[in-house]
Amino acid sequence: AAGELPLHRGHVLDATDRLIRAHLQRLLTRHATCWTGADRHAPWHGGVVARLERLAADGLVALAGNEINVTPAGLPFMRNICAALDLRLHADADSLAAASLYRMPLDRQG
Questions:
Q1: Which segments of 1-110 are extended strands (E)?
Q2: For residue 67, which phi and psi values (nearest 5 degrees)?
Q3: Could you give the 3-state DSSP secondary structure of residue 69?
Q4: Cβ neighbours, 10 Å, residue 40
Q5: Residue 85 in contact with residue 20, Cβ under 8 Å?
Q6: Distance (Å, rounded) from C-alpha 87 to C-alpha 23?
Q7: pLDDT confidence tier of residue 12, bands split at 50, 70 and 90
Q8: Contacts of 2 (CB under 8 A, 6+ apart)
């Protein structure tokens, strides 16, 4: 409001945001992170893993069980690897993919 000083800046992070941020920090600093049991059952996990599998096919990351390791070939592509974990970037694509699972086929009458 006019005449008031802003006391808060930035974004309010929910639990998912903080969890993803922790994974991103580990990827950027240690070039590896590990999913926990709770991560594996989160609704966003499948979409993230699918994107990481495409990067693994290109040799940029190695996926082994719960672990994600950036390969030497992947180091120049850290931005792309981290983008795979960006839930807001992929929110529209993931919601469209989920919606297509429930799409009913049209009956064709000859």
A1: 32-34, 61-64, 67-70
A2: -100, 145
A3: strand
A4: 11
A5: yes
A6: 12
A7: confident
A8: none
39 versus 99: the higher-pLDDT residue is 39
Closest among 106, 92, 2 to 47, alpha carbons compared:
92
Q: What is the pLDDT of residues 43-87, one digit of tens each?
A: 889 999 999 999 999 999 999 989 999 999 999 999 999 999 998
> Are 34 and 52 within 8 A, CB to CB?
no
* Alpha-carbon Rg for the chain in angstroms: 18
Cα–Cα distances (Å) from 110 to 74, 79, 107, in that order, read 53, 52, 10
Burial 10-21 (b: 16+ CB within 10 A, else e): eeeeeeeeebbe
Strands 32-34 and 61-64: unpaired
| Bridge partners, residue 67, by sequence | 34, 64
pLDDT of residue 95: 56
Q: Is 69 left (phi over 0), alpha (psi -120 to 50) or beta?
A: beta
